[in-house]
Amino acid sequence: MKPRITLKKIANEFGVSISTVSKALKDSHEISEETREKIKAFAGFYNYKPNSLALQLRNQKTSVIGVIIPEIVHHFFSTVINGIETYANEKGYNVMVCLSNESYDKEVSNISVLTNGSVDGLIVSLARETQQNQNFKHFEALIKDDFPLVLFDRVKDDLACDKVIIDDVGGAYKAANHLVEIGKRRIALLTTQDYITVGSLRKEGYLKSLVKNDIGIDESLIYKIDDKQDLYEQIKKVIFVKNPPDAILAVNEIYAANALKIAKERGLTIPNDIAIIGFTSGLISEFTSPPLTSVVQHGFLMGKQTAELLINRIEHTASKEYQKEVISPNLKIRQSTLIK
Amino acid sequence: MKPRITLKKIANEFGVSISTVSKALKDSHEISEETREKIKAFAGFYNYKPNSLALQLRNQKTSVIGVIIPEIVHHFFSTVINGIETYANEKGYNVMVCLSNESYDKEVSNISVLTNGSVDGLIVSLARETQQNQNFKHFEALIKDDFPLVLFDRVKDDLACDKVIIDDVGGAYKAANHLVEIGKRRIALLTTQDYITVGSLRKEGYLKSLVKNDIGIDESLIYKIDDKQDLYEQIKKVIFVKNPPDAILAVNEIYAANALKIAKERGLTIPNDIAIIGFTSGLISEFTSPPLTSVVQHGFLMGKQTAELLINRIEHTASKEYQKEVISPNLKIRQSTLIK
DNA sequence: AAAAATTCCGCAAACGTTTTCGTGTTTATA
DNA sequence: TATAAACACGAAAACGTTTGCGGAATTTTT
């Protein structure tokens, strides 16, 4: 790579000082018009751009936001990043993306790398492992130093920082109510292992709905899927039973789509024999047949709000108190729950 | 945010010079063990980390890779980023992601921002607008300065830089051949507007296959979809005709999934009445019914190779010549082309 | 006891920028 | 003609780090 042109080189070219060049390029009245013009012409010709690192160091500000997410090949997370990027860009920030790959160690090391001065603030969604081992020392250290930090989606409640979450309880509640309204009583829940916060919150909404609708809770209808094992086989055990449920609420799109596929394999008609709803973030639900009714999550909005909270923090326009913003999901009704 | 601890502060604490502190922390033999230990203890206690900006400025190296893609809410691009991130991380680099949103202006400004010293190299996939207006001045400027640059997927051939592309011609060729093999003759092509390179390359493969299989080319079977208009209506015109095609080759997943949906609406059986293949990058094809045969694109591998080329460039371990790596897509056969 | 070697540390430059303050020269004012 | 003002520019510090070199003090060698 060719060495970039600097103020010093321009200064040498004209036999003036660095400060003169700097001022000339900023159209300072301190510099004569003649000098100004020739310096600007020269700089323009060589496409001079101030070195960003030098500026960042001097101004003690990078205008970069660090984002750490568990994975990026995931419609929900990429949608959130899109929201973050959009808002951040409007405000003159760039985005540095790091992946924890659900690993605690990677999350810790990402945080360590990003907080060495290269970003002004951090947006994080917790790795699965972190949620599992409940070790938050790396975040507590940040908080102790008042480092601008916003958690989204997968958060830890007692950490003193801004948070943006989906109303998972409400979403599951709405979805389960909908299933009851179309006449279903034996509603199975396909959820995650307990330590995944969103999974247990959605379970909470599901239970709340059953109680409200005077439907007894049948623990045998609650299936905790293990993501590390074969999905298909696990979900098969939900449907290939003597007396299958008449509805399924799945906490994500993949579970729902698999359930749909398996139900059809068993010859059940949808939604009459069995209705299915999934939490969604992607496009799968739209293209299954029948298309799946879904709880949609507004990832873009979430990203924007997350970025907004963070930038307010960075620029000290935030209130002293930490905020927790809750985004309500929508129920998008499609044919998998549409009884004629 | 609390001010971070610096060498200077540690130096003041012990009444020694900054260089002494720096050396002590690096276990230099120039510093007495006593001084070394107390400085290290103090630094450790306050969790000292060298300021990355200062290091970057001094070393003239950021260890950051800039990535500019048209959009991120897209399975293919997020998979590529995943590959880039994985490889870059192994090599000690971080990744800064910017979105052009298919806009020429945004692409130009992203490049301008990223090349002001904040990244060591750039990975780009061209915005749609850039492909349209064929203006590559911003890249030519980079190339003139020998700035490390790698283009992937949506590339411009005559730019003098490394490139990684999918063998789109070969992929479409394979796919069309497969359709012929299962007995189809009236194969419609759902492609993009001409200026999208991948669209026209896939068209090329399609045509090549027809020629090879002695099937006459019927221009009326080639549909150029406009992404800015309603997909559903456009694709409807392909299938709701007097004499619909007996197969469809779609240049992306969404076109294919829509075609499938519409074909079913028209009461056609798949694959007997009409077989469908799509280029894919996402999960939709797996969950449609029947599942769609797809040309799969190996985005992760693409990302890794792209990052590898770039880092070799940055670290001068690359050969003088620019490389063009071609990744062959696979044909994943599913029920939409499986004739019993 | 003198010379040489070793130990321990500080100075200063370098990376590239901005900005305050100072200074010498020219021009305008009294 | 002396003084004040205006003009045009430079020096230097600051952001935080690394590192070659020099030097004082101590220790070892001859």
How does the SSE layout of this entry go?
2 copies of one chain form a homodimer.
Chain A: H1 7-14, H2 18-25, H3 33-45, H4 52-59, E1 64-69, H5 75-90, E2 94-99, H6 104-114, E3 121-124, H7 128-133, H8 137-144, E4 149-152, E5 162-166, H9 168-181, E6 187-191, H10 197-212, E7 222-224, H11 231-239, E8 247-250, H12 253-265, E9 275-280, H13 284-287, E10 293-296, H14 299-314, E11 324-327, E12 330-332
Parallel strand pairs in A: 1-2, 1-3, 3-4, 4-5, 5-11, 6-7, 6-8, 8-9, 9-10
Antiparallel strand pairs in A: 10-12
Helix pairs in contact in A: 1-2, 2-3, 5-14, 9-10, 11-12
Chain A binds a DNA duplex (30 and 30 nucleotides) through helix 2 and helix 4.
GO molecular function, one term (chains A, B): DNA binding
Pfam families (chains A, B): LacI, Peripla_BP_3
Protein name (chains A, B): LacI family DNA-binding transcriptional regulator
Q: How large is the count of helical segments of chain A? A: 14
> What's the number of domains of chain A?
3
Second rung of CATH, namely the architecture of the largest domain in chain A: 3-Layer(aba) Sandwich
Biggest interface, chains and residues, is:
A-B, 54 and 55 residues
The number of distinct β-strands of chain A equals 12
Q: Order of strands in the sheet with the most strands of chain A?
A: 2-1-3-4-5-11
End-to-end Cα distance of chain A, whole Å, is 67 Å
Would you state the CATH class of the largest domain in chain A? Alpha Beta
Largest sheet of chain A: 6 strands, parallel
Which spans of chain A of ≥5 residues are poorly predicted at pLDDT below 50?
none
CATH homologous superfamily classification of the largest domain in chain A:
Response regulator
Order of helices and strands of chain A: HHHHEHEHEHHEEHEHEHEHEHEHEE
* Structural class label of chain A: alpha/beta
Residues in helices of chain A, as a percent range:
40-55%
Strand content of chain A is 15-25%
CATH fold-level name of the largest domain in chain A:
Rossmann fold
Report the radius of gyration of chain A as a whole number of Å: 27 Å
- Shape call of chain A: elongated
Mean pLDDT figure of chain A: 96
